[in-house]
Amino acid sequence: MPVPAPQLGSYQFVTETKENLDWADLVTIDLAKYGTPEGKKELAQELLSALRNKGFFYVKNFNIDQERVNRQFALGREFYELPLEEKLKYVPDLDAGKFNGYTPAGRYVINPDSGLKDRIEIWNMPKFNGYFPQEYPELIKEHLPEIEEFARALHSEVLDPLFVLLALALELPEDYFTNIHLYKEKSEDHLRYMKYSKYTAEENAKLNLWTPGHTDLGSFTLLFRQPVAALQIKDPVKGEWKWVKPQDGTITVNACDALSFLTGGYVRSTIHRVTVPPKDQQQVDRLGLLYFSRPHNDVKLVTAKESPVLQRAGYTQNEFEASGNPVPTMEEWTFAKQKWQRKRTYIRDETHRTAVILPGFQEKVYDDKPVAAAA
């Protein structure tokens, strides 16, 4: 029997940490300026600077009100309240690199000495464009029109402007990147509800990280504000780990592998990780709302050599091109990296963490030591 869908109710965010953390100094892209040629020009340079110097940035004034965002958080909360046996009906073939549906917690040992496993649950929903048949629990079925509208709005109100600004910054036609990120086309984008369940204080004392340093495989990742501090980024210039501060009314955005390939490494795929929260937030779960943007599946990940900016800077080959190996399509890259990520040895096996994903691209270990919270 299907589990009846509960009423959503309101969503209450937890209190932000009062600890004095070493926060990253990130640029905020204000899309209120996007409506004029002068505003676009200014934003394009702000975006390029953010991508080159930090890789992470905030976006504000993106025409999606907080109530719509809160309802997605509430849906995520209610989804994770479903019985485990109900959620387990929607597990894809994870070992084959499939990712749409439910991923249960406990697949990875994150501390070999204690045997502690991850407590991360993931619910991924693909594009609603006819290419991705997907089964859903009643809770999600009842809200699919709202979820679809939200996902499509992320494209039109956030991603499309960012891709236009990136094209302008690289002196390419405005539609250069939007033409390979059309919602109607087949690509492995997905909307995600992600839950990190809490550990006890004693367990956290044995842990350095909840998720090790890594890069995302797509174009841009959108992370909606949630107050539990745990996300850290590695400054691409200084090599230092910094905490990412939740900012009201913003989306935190990071650049990913596909944009790095498409720009010959000029746009860096940003290294980030999830660490143990500060002590005043260790007693709560961490619920995330994210969107992962990716080029069309059939896009070959070749460098945009026609960009005058890339030509002048000398960024005209990515890892595949420079090594003489075949350049993958986005679909080939997606499932090669997903299959690697989903293997149960992913977190603790150093040999696995430095594997060759495809000929021409070898993964790296990005962690040194965690940034400590202030006492």
Automatic annotation (TrEMBL):
<dbReference type="Pfam" id="PF03171">
    <property type="entry name" value="2OG-FeII_Oxy"/>
</dbReference>
<dbReference type="InterPro" id="IPR050231">
    <property type="entry name" value="Iron_ascorbate_oxido_reductase"/>
</dbReference>
<feature type="domain" description="Isopenicillin N synthase-like Fe(2+) 2OG dioxygenase">
    <location>
        <begin position="195"/>
        <end position="292"/>
    </location>
</feature>
<feature type="domain" description="Non-haem dioxygenase N-terminal">
    <location>
        <begin position="28"/>
        <end position="125"/>
    </location>
</feature>
<dbReference type="InterPro" id="IPR044861">
    <property type="entry name" value="IPNS-like_FE2OG_OXY"/>
</dbReference>
<dbReference type="InterPro" id="IPR027443">
    <property type="entry name" value="IPNS-like_sf"/>
</dbReference>
<protein>
    <submittedName>
        <fullName>Clavaminate synthase-like protein</fullName>
    </submittedName>
</protein>
<dbReference type="Pfam" id="PF14226">
    <property type="entry name" value="DIOX_N"/>
</dbReference>
<dbReference type="InterPro" id="IPR026992">
    <property type="entry name" value="DIOX_N"/>
</dbReference>
